[in-house]
Design goal:
Elements: H1 10-21, H2 26-33, H3 37-47, H4 60-72, H5 78-81, H6 83-90
Length: 91
Amino acid sequence: MGTLYEQLSLREGVEIDIGRRKGLSMQAIGQMLGRSASTISRELGRNGRPTRHWRGSYDGERADGLAARRRRWDARHKLARQPALAITVRD
């Protein structure tokens, strides 16, 4: 059977944030959390980039909120989400 993966918890996100502020490497943070360095790297890349509304760097609590928002996102095709648009396109 395949490997079971779990999403990072809020606590882990905060620990990543603290580790980065202390200047720890991704490998050291991963060892501290029992995660691989690539998991830490992906997390920092996914949730640590500045945006138009967020100029800071990685923040564990913010990352948890972003992950929750992505889980709620309706990933269906745009035409399936917007029936009126589908009718316009069909016509």
